[in-house]
Amino acid sequence: RTSPSKESSEVEGSERCTGGVLHDGKEVAVKKLRGEGPEAEKKFRMEMDVLSGGGRGWCHPNLVVLYGWCLFGAVKLLVYEFIPGGGTLEEAVANGRLGGWRNRVKAAKGVARALVYLHHECHPAVVHRDVKASNVLLAGRGSRTSGSLGWWDQETATSAPILQAAW
């Protein structure tokens, strides 16, 4: 259960994100997915199995924690670890907030580490299919970035892990 925050935004035109606070005071990001019908529910359930690491959870410093999810009729919610600072890598580069090449390389290495983990250390492998700067969320100088909300595959299932990198 979360308490809603005042900030809310569209993500890639198909999702709505807002902040929240869990009963223990932990801040979270809540993403509401769109789509109705049995096929959308089946896809969502497959995604949750993948995103939850098959019930084991992701055990990697470059993947944001998925705390939970809700599927109630047409309502589909994802509750993620909140990464303060916000903004995408694309926005940071365009606005000059990322700094020099050293920070860009650090961010790229973090995303690469997450992809190596998903591709080679997860069984079955998870193949990300939409890595781009607009899908990488930055936390701020000296902390981590989180990332991709794009589509990916675990064999035939599609979903969206969140990547992190230090910069």
Chain-wise SSE layout:
Layout: E1 2-11, E2 15-22, E3 27-33, H1 38-51, E4 66-72, E5 75-81, H2 89-94, H3 101-121, E6 126-128, E7 137-138, E8 144-146, E9 152-154, E10 157-159, E11 164-166
Structural descriptors:
single chain; Transferase(Phosphotransferase), domain 1; 5-stranded antiparallel beta sheet; 3-stranded antiparallel beta sheet; 3 helices; 25% helix; disordered N terminus
Explain what the structure shows.
- The protein is an alpha+beta fold.
- It has one domain: Transferase(Phosphotransferase), domain 1 (Orthogonal Bundle), CATH 1.10.510.
- A hairpin with a 2-residue loop joins strand 9 and strand 10.
- The chain is globular and about 45 Å long.
- The N terminus is likely disordered.
**Helicity, in percent?**
10-25%
CATH class descriptor: Mainly Alpha
CATH topology description? Transferase(Phosphotransferase), domain 1
Shape: globular
Strand order of the largest sheet: 1-2-3-5-4
Instruction: Supply Rg.
Output: 15 Å
In short:
The protein is an alpha+beta fold and 167 residues long.
